[in-house]
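## Example record

The block below lists the input lines for one assembly entry, exactly as stored, with component labels intact.
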Amino acid sequence: MAEVLKPVLKEAPYPAIAVVAPRQDPAGVALEKVYSIGALDEKSFKDGDSFIVDFGEHYTGYLIFDLGWAGVSCDAPARLRLIFGEVSTDVTQPLYPYKGWISASWLPDEILNVDFLPQQVRIARRHAFRYVRIEVISTSSNFSATFRNIQVRAVSSAGVDRHQPANYDSPLLRDIDRVSIRTLHECMQTSFEDGPKRDRRLWVGDLRLQALVNYASFNNAALVRRCLYLFAGLQRADGYITACVYEQPTPRIGEVVLIDYAALFGCIVLDYLHATNDRDTAAELWPVARQQLELALNNVDAQGLFVAPQQDYVFIDWNPGQDQSEALQGLDKQAAMQGLLIYSCRQGMALARAVGREEDAARLAENIALMSQAASRRLFDSALGVFVSGEHRQVSWASQAWMALAGVLPQQQMAQALEHVMTMPQAVRPLTPYLYHHMVDALIRCGLSQKAKKLVETYWGAMVKTGTNTFWEAFDPENPMSSPYGSKQIDSYCHAWSCTPSYFIRNGFT
Amino acid sequence: MAEVLKPVLKEAPYPAIAVVAPRQDPAGVALEKVYSIGALDEKSFKDGDSFIVDFGEHYTGYLIFDLGWAGVSCDAPARLRLIFGEVSTDVTQPLYPYKGWISASWLPDEILNVDFLPQQVRIARRHAFRYVRIEVISTSSNFSATFRNIQVRAVSSAGVDRHQPANYDSPLLRDIDRVSIRTLHECMQTSFEDGPKRDRRLWVGDLRLQALVNYASFNNAALVRRCLYLFAGLQRADGYITACVYEQPTPRIGEVVLIDYAALFGCIVLDYLHATNDRDTAAELWPVARQQLELALNNVDAQGLFVAPQQDYVFIDWNPGQDQSEALQGLDKQAAMQGLLIYSCRQGMALARAVGREEDAARLAENIALMSQAASRRLFDSALGVFVSGEHRQVSWASQAWMALAGVLPQQQMAQALEHVMTMPQAVRPLTPYLYHHMVDALIRCGLSQKAKKLVETYWGAMVKTGTNTFWEAFDPENPMSSPYGSKQIDSYCHAWSCTPSYFIRNGFT
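Predicted structure tokens for the full assembly:
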């Protein structure tokens, strides 16, 4: 079913618009125009020379250019190195030595040997980029290399943004919406990818947020449906869907289950049903969604508390201290997972009812009651006015956000907890836009629309102000150069889970 | 005309036969089998691992293999480095840092990024190799790379060796003939290339020797005709043909005239006429051949001596001291060029007669007489019994060889000069097989067949004894690790001008 729904990608050419070079400025490294792309036609480059072209927008696709020569004679091959950059630091900071802990094979550089010049060069691999740094490694003493008609054959399955607002509350929100939509556009390929640079893969957590923005923009519901079937068709032996699946060379199950991601599967189906009224698909997928909840609920003890198992993981957010002691630095996920599971069961209940499975809904209602009671009694610290998590009674944004979305306490009390945690210096803050999304969503659901808007303007706005065309996988406003992977060069700067401001903006923060 | 004659290459697959590894032996580095290629199917390779596959024969073509993975999950691209080797040192000595003076873009390595595994990988560039070193640069911690069905799609336009002798005088001569024919086979593509690794280009000097061996083996006369028309169709404004021409992306004139190469053009046409009786082609090409002789003769002074001009060069042989003072180390080319030009005029005279141009022949006869007289009177040192060259009266094999081929003195006297120079320690010896060919040819023409055979057995035999499958661009038996380009790694180990032993062997050294 998923393969039947596989979209044909739209491909369109876009030319590079300028040659740029780094300029030191107080905010870091900026790229500024050195000359227009037309002037490149008159230039030639010898061994060791390099330049950076700017496409003016983030594209996902295939780089093409005419490689020629100038000089006495082209009597040898040309060897080039290309580095693709989504943001300026990708092409201004050295790629190597690389010390991150994700595979170096993701680093976006290519060594290219071209035997006979002139010829049109087409990079066979898809890259995600706004900038390309082109270095001439070697020609011969008899010629230098020329570059013309540099363009990208850009691909996407997104189509047309049908729901762009006529007006925005502020220029900043307009910019945030534009960057959000571009981020989603770039991640929509033959599936919803998490990032077109890396991992280029369909993840449950990203899909859920992408789908929400998609309904408010491109409204390509068929692609959501394809992705739902990809997960449903690739369950693990025990019934769990994995946190991600692979599309190429043939669809294949992922290696890891994240219990929170699995539990949220039904939410995606419910959102799809609301957006499309496609009850047949929802009914067909309900058994898979129910199974995810059942498997997650197996980890709830008799008192109604979620207890993390040994073998599968809970995500919630990246930990800031991946490489340090969990006890000291890490996010404790107990309370957030408790809230997330209650939330997922509520959505599951709504889905069960919508497809006529009242018995399933009733059973979920019991789970919700038990877990909600446990949450409010055991995890809410009434002295502090916030939820606490784990044996160290950690306070975090994550716990408050998911408990609020779960509706464990009256709205007024949840709103206070949310406002309070945002003022607590010791509270663990989100690292990724993924968790910021849930914080914004929670603020809205608790009637704090202005605070929600403010958080979007502050957090995503800070990324916009760097000049980025797309939103990033991870962004810590306190430490913009940090990376959850130990190296900025491996980071994805166009990342699906970061595209959700448009969902809020286009729904008026309600 | 040349393009009409462009051949369709035959393509055939050959599998790799073993995985090999270096073993130190007294003669240098040898590669020995570690396991059969079938055993590779069971192995997998992580970051930093490498292995060398052996195809058992020299091939020119496109490497193909099935790249797969083993482990938990293939969750990242694979980055590989391939190094192609014609001989063992190519894959056992480091390629970098490279200090040769020819462009580093000829170094035969590729960095390869493969996004989705498993897939069949086909290297888009043509390479020339017997060995391939495969290094895994990066995978991810979740998988290692596997390699299966490693094969080469080998290309050549040579066809079938129709004239292999039934018997040889010795096993060594059989081996020398086999390696010669393989060398030619590999250099026969859409033109006669000098070397399939480098420069992959049609040179006058190589073509002449290749054509001779070709008539005695594959007898692909159409390819010779194509190459003759490529040169004739790409004359420089002053009428000279250039020393080489380029085929790709479209036929293009070379940058340098070598006067000796240009003068020899008519010899190739004459050999072609003898091999094919294609008088029409010979007649059509005669004006170009005559023009080359006329242009070369412009440099002969009133006394009949060739005086090298400033603007164009004479090749004869590589100089051992390219990077040192010419006066101290270099071959003085005056006498050799004098002999070569007389020889070329003699061949031109025969060609002119064969196509009915008696007037042209008569004019050349006058030039031959004048230059021969000058050679014997001014360049022959009767005290030493050898020809001398230049103001330092240098003695070299080159001078004796070309004077003998020119028939300047009676055969008996020339034979003495040849035998004598071979015993003189201070005489400048040949560096390349190209000049060794002319020495062997001269010995045969002076009735010294046994000495000719001995020289073939000694010089080419020493290469065979290294285990090579093809003959090399340059080989100095006194200093096997030297390179005329400052680095062995850039040398071509399958080089056209080195394939001529088969011509001598198959003609019985007569």
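The CA atoms of residues 150 and 336 of chain A lie 48 Å apart. The radius of gyration of chain A is 24 Å.
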